[in-house]
Design goal:
Helices cover 52% and strands 13% of the residues. By secondary structure, the protein is α/β, with parallel strands linked by helices. The protein has one domain: Rossmann fold (3-Layer(aba) Sandwich), CATH 3.40.50.10130. α1 crosses α2.
Length: 118
């Protein structure tokens, strides 16, 4: 099973990657979009992503729309978390679920934990 995780540690890094190094990030996202399981983790609440950035020329709406474009265009889901620790916890849960569903399908149990449920 292939899981490729792109993890951005904080909002300033995401802003920088979507502005000054946009082509590098887009190319990286295009590569990981080929994997069956991928996830972009932003260690900032979505409300922070959408709020004005002090001392930065970036537009919060453009950054948010870039994240939505990554989701819609490249089909790379993103997850916003308030802290690095919460992000680690959610990533661990995500990886557990990916592995669990893979095990279920590999062992002919279908794609459900219980009858017709997640």
């Amino acid at each position: 099973m292939f899981v490729h995780l792109l993890k951005r540690k904080d909002l300033p890094d995401l802003i920088h990657s979507l502005t000054a190094e946009r082509s590098v990030l887009v190319n990286r996202l295009r590569r990981i979009s080929r994997y069956p399981h991928r996830l972009l983790v932003v260690t900032a609440a979505l409300s922070q992503v959408k709020s004005p950035y002090p001392h930065r020329g970036a537009n919060p709406n453009r950054v948010t729309q870039s994240l939505i474009a990554v989701l819609a265009g490249l089909q790379v889901p993103f997850l916003c978390t308030e802290t690095h620790e919460l992000g680690e916890d959610l990533v661990a849960s995500y990886l557990y679920q990916v592995d669990l569903y893979h095990w279920l399908e590999t062992n002919d149990h279908g794609h459900f934990l219980t009858d017709n449920d997640l």
